[in-house]
Amino acid sequence: MNIKQNPSGLQANGFTLPLSLSINGKQYDLNIEPRVSLLDALREYIGLTGTKKGCNQGACGACTVLVDGERINSCMTLAVQYQGKEITTVEGLAEDGNLSALQQAFIEHDGFQCGYCTPGQLCSATAMIEEFKNGMPSAVSPDVASEEFEFSEKEIKERMSGNLCRCGAYVGIVEAIQEAFSNKETTVAHETFYL
Ligand code: FES
Ligand code: FES
Fold first, then answer.
1. Which ligand is closest in space to the CA of residue 53?
2. Which residues line ligand 1 (CB under 6 A)?
3. Does residue 184 contact residue 126 with C-beta atoms inside 8 Å?
4. 150: which residues sit within 8 A by CB, 6+ positions away?
5. Which end of the chain offers a freer environment for a tag, N or C, measured as fewer CB atoms within 10 Å?
6. Which has the higher per-residue pLDDT, 8 or 128?
7. Averaged over 140-155, what is the pLDDT?
């Protein structure tokens, strides 16, 4: 993949830094201004345009990617923060050419319409399922120390509330996430999850 050193509209006007980013298992060497967001580095310099720019201010979740497995809004962070980390974008969710269970479930449940929010929804939900399994609290978990708490529709909606869908495909998105979760191991550590 050709890396653009001076993408149109983002010409470097000042100090630039050499930067090496690991994305979807590949290494990318860049020379960019420290002010460039991770989102712009992905889309404009590296050409990974699966990650979308919606609001560019942390409000919509369209730009969600994974860093060492945790979800972040790439529009709100600088690319220079992530040298030495493993970044995963929507282009890296498939394994060995096969869609992930979550990607497949989005297709089967019509979890999208125009698809603009979908890369962010997929990355966010991928990490969210792991957060839930690891006992991370949410605003609707009454007692996360409890031995049993449910991966309910309410939980999913709360935990995915940072990802907006302007097409309103929420019903399919929730169903797809429920299905992907139910296809995973349902007994984790000390907790049994009820679907
Ligand atoms: S584009 Fe990053 S949160 Fe909207
Ligand atoms: S599918 Fe169109 S914004 Fe979500």
1. 1
2. 53-56, 58-63, 73, 75
3. no
4. 193, 194, 195
5. N
6. 128
7. 78
The model carries a pTM of: 0.89
Task: Check if 188 has its Cβ closer than 6 Å to any atom of ligand 2.
Answer: no
Q: Name all domains of the chain by residue range, CATH numbers in brackets.
A: 17-92 (3.10.20.30), 101-192 (1.10.150.120)
Count of alpha carbons within 13 angstroms of residue 190, beta-carbon side = 5
Tokens of 45: 């310099």
115 lines ligand 2 (CB under 6 A): yes
Inter-CA distances, 28 with 2, 13, 25, Å? 10, 22, 10
For 159: left if phi > 0, alpha if psi spans -120 to 50, otherwise beta; the answer is alpha
Tell me how far apart the alpha carbons of residues 109 and 128 are, in angstroms, rounded to a whole number.
Answer: 19
